[in-house]
Write a structure and sequence with these properties.
It is built from 15 helices and 9 strands. By secondary structure, it is mostly helical. The strands form 4 sheets. It has a 3-stranded antiparallel sheet. Strands 1-4 form a two-stranded antiparallel ribbon. Strand 7 (443-446) and strand 8 (449-450) form a beta hairpin. Helix 4 (102-139) runs parallel beside helix 11. The radius of gyration is 29 Å and the shape is elongated.
């Protein structure tokens, strides 16, 4: 028998029918945390329960409930008396809901619960997509170029962040389920110091996602505006992506260590100290928005110079924006407003929570989809790999495959010479070369000769379906 069943079975029906008692009550807290079992209590009397061990509770407090003369439990202002168990910071937030109806609060809780489920689904899908995309970009040597080097670092930061978020969400869901059953639980939050370490590392990986999105924007903006192309400074990129977040994260962690009064620093997101890490991340998003506007502006200018029709200009501009938005993370700016209150419009509540959770959890999926799976060169290489695998299983084609391999090796030697020759060149892109700014940067060859009119270009920015020639030369970072 579960703890809830034990609680509700603690009285016989005959006693309750007399009307001199309030029935046992199995009550969840506002945050769906631990459940309270209010025992059978005589009318016109009170019962007190010590606040249970919970990271948002102050265990030195007592929750008290009144059994009314009508044999019904009483609340105060629509709130359960167990709210006194919350720590002061959380209690201040709860006090803002004093004039809110119980139905509105229940609706808000249901929306948040649904949004959390969507978040778990999104992170799971993103995790699978990121792993596959990262493997593809690392496996094919033909994809080793400046663009993919940056893409891989962004995917790696998204991968680590996604894994940590899934682990902590599953741990939290397990803890809530166990507490609902009234059983003891042994999770990350129960190990002293471990919860804080996980939280610091999670915030670091989140910060690194922002810094690598900044590197993406910085590289793209420099590529389309610089008068002369230069080899990217990857030491600077690695410093920005992996080292720069360390300073704000350490500052925030030290501050929380000396100021937080709750286990696991519960409620840190509503404290003023959270701006130590939140302000730099918001600044990155604003800068990336500037990069996006500038890149789109230059793209529109180039499209107008090419005398394309207005319909084509609009279509290509929209495609470019769709590719750039998840890569630069500017979609997060849509949900910077304060969380809605229970009394707000129900449609707005749903849009805010589901929209923000969707944008955050599915970001990795869309980055992998738009900048790997839909990329023409990636699809071409996968088709070529699949065809080679099928040919190897057919004995009649093995002799032909051996001859083809010899020819490919000879061509590879010529392509490497062409690559070294091209790597020494530096110039500004013409309008015909302009349109590859977010996806894999490649230098093409035609009949063994480099075609200067196609490298680098932005065609794949406006047409991710476009596939390149079978003979591609990629520069090493």
């Amino acid at each position: 028998m579960s703890s809830e069943e034990n609680c509700l079975a603690s009285s016989d029906d005959a006693t309750l029918a007399s009307g001199h008692y309030c029935p046992p009550y199995w009550e969840p807290t506002l945050t769906n945390g631990p459940w309270f079992c209010w025992p059978r209590t005589e009318v016109n009397s009170t019962v007190s329960i010590k606040c249970p061990e919970y990271f948002a509770f102050d265990t030195s407090h007592m929750a008290t409930r009144q059994c009314g003369s009508d044999g019904q439990w009483s609340d105060f202002n629509g709130f359960s008396p167990v709210t006194v168990c919350f720590n002061p910071d959380i209690l201040d937030m709860i006090n803002d809901f004093r004039n809110t109806s119980h139905a509105d609060i229940t609706y808000l809780q249901s929306v948040i619960t649904g949004a959390r489920i969507l978040e778990i689904v999104g992170y799971s899908i993103s995790l699978a997509a990121i792993v596959i995309a990262f493997f593809i970009l690392c496996y094919f040597r033909n994809l080793q170029c400046h663009r993919t080097s940056i893409h891989k670092q962004l995917l790696l930061s998204l991968l680590i962040r996604t894994v940590l978020d899934i682990v902590l969400h599953v741990d939290n869901m397990y803890r809530l389920q166990v507490m609902h059953n009234g059983s003891a639980y042994d999770t990350i939050g129960k190990v002293e110091g471990l919860c804080e370490v996980f939280e610091v590392f999670r915030q670091y990986t989140r910060f690194s996602v922002f810094t690598w999105m900044f590197v993406e924007g910085f590289y793209l903006n420099g590529m389309v505006t610089a008068a002369v192309f230069r080899k990217p400074n990857f030491k600077l990129y690695y410093f920005i992506g992996w080292i720069l977040p360390v300073g704000p994260i350490i500052s925030w962690a030290v501050t929380m260590h000396y100021t937080a009064t709750t286990p696991c620093w519960f409620g840190y997101a509503i404290s003023d100290y959270y701006w130590i890490i939140e302000a730099p991340r918001l600044l990155i998003l604003v800068i990336n928005l500037g990069f996006l506007i500038n890149i789109i502006r230059i793209l529109v200018t180039k499209l107008r110079e090419s005398n394309t029709s207005e319909t084509q200009q609009v279509r290509k501009t929209i495609k470019a924006a769709i590719l750039l938005v998840p890569l630069l993370g500017v979609n997060s700016l849509l949900f910077l407003s304060a969380p809605p209150q229970p009394s707000d419009n129900k449609v707005y509540i749903v849009i805010h929570y589901y929209g923000s959770m969707f944008a955050i959890s599915f970001q990795g999926f869309f980055v992998a989809l738009l900048h790997c799976f839909m990329h023409g060169e990636v699809r071409m290489l996968l088709r070529r790999k699949w065809s080679g695998w099928q040919s190897s299983r057919r004995p009649s084609r093995r002799r032909m495959s051996s001859t083809t391999t010899t020819d490919v090796s000879r061509n590879d030697s010529l392509l490497k010479k062409a690559q070294r020759k091209w790597s020494s060149r530096s110039r500004r892109p013409s309008s015909a070369e302009f349109t590859e700014c977010t996806q894999i940067e490649c230098h093409h060859v035609s009949n063994g000769n480099l075609d200067a009119q196609t490298a680098p270009n932005m065609n794949l920015l406006i047409d991710p379906e476009a596939a390149t020639s079978d003979q591609d030369v990629f520069t090493e970072p």
